[in-house]
Design a protein that fits this description.
Elements: H1 10-15, H2 22-29, H3 32-65, H4 72-103, H5 106-128, H6 139-144, H7 150-182
Helix pairs in contact: 3-4, 3-7, 4-5, 5-7
């Protein structure tokens, strides 16, 4: 601590680590604590995706069982989103991020960013749900459910909130992984093998 100039008191560094100099930002972002927290939140988004798709299936099944304006194809799509989406998310971006932090290879980070963009796009699409058939519990599907099916309509609105929260949290993970590159002193074109987590 001696010999280092801080523009703000030291206790504020603990409250807001990004308020100090850029060297403090680099030290914080390249720390093991930050990497571990980032991996935990990314795992939370994976669990959140499982919750969102399970809730989506439940809401579509409830509306279908009540004789609502949902067809069997929509129920089949809701099952397919859950059965195919969870293993695809695990193998494409969740496992890739874990390997990227372990191996420190730039290509692995690039693949994570590409696959995670697809995850973000799906979460945004699901929270809006502009397609007909009500196979996703987005805001447009929730508003289209008639008031005769009040319980199913509430389930659809809760599904919209879950997908929106999943999108916001996933967006934070995406930005945090990018900040890990930039403020950790590593760009996407550099070799990551020299960087300590």
């Amino acid at each position: 601590m001696a010999g280092r100039y801080h523009s703000i008191p030291t206790f504020l560094d603990k409250v807001n680590p990004f308020s100090a100099s850029s060297s403090t930002i680099q030290t914080y972002i390249s720390s093991h604590e930050y990497v571990q927290r980032l991996q935990n939140v990314a795992y939370g988004t994976f669990l959140g995706l499982i919750l969102c798709l399970s809730w989506n299936l439940m809401a579509v099944a409830v509306l279908w069982s009540q004789g609502g304006e949902v067809e069997q194809e929509s129920l089949f799509l809701a099952v397919a989103y859950l059965v195919l989406g969870v293993p695809a998310a695990y193998s494409s971006w969740h496992r890739t991020l874990s390997l990227a932090f372990q191996e420190k290879k730039r290509l692995t980070f690039k693949w994570f960013l590409v696959f995670y963009l697809f995850h973000l796009a799906f979460c945004l699409f699901a929270s809006i749900s502009p397609i007909e058939g009500r196979s996703l519990t987005g805001v447009l599907s929730a508003m289209a459910v008639s008031s005769d099916h009040g319980f199913a309509r509430v389930l659809y609105f809760v599904g919209f909130v879950l997908f929106s929260y999943e999108y916001a949290l996933s967006f934070w993970v995406m930005l945090s992984v990018y900040m890990y590159y930039r403020h950790g002193g590593v760009s996407l074109g550099d070799d990551l093998t020299s960087m300590e987590p």
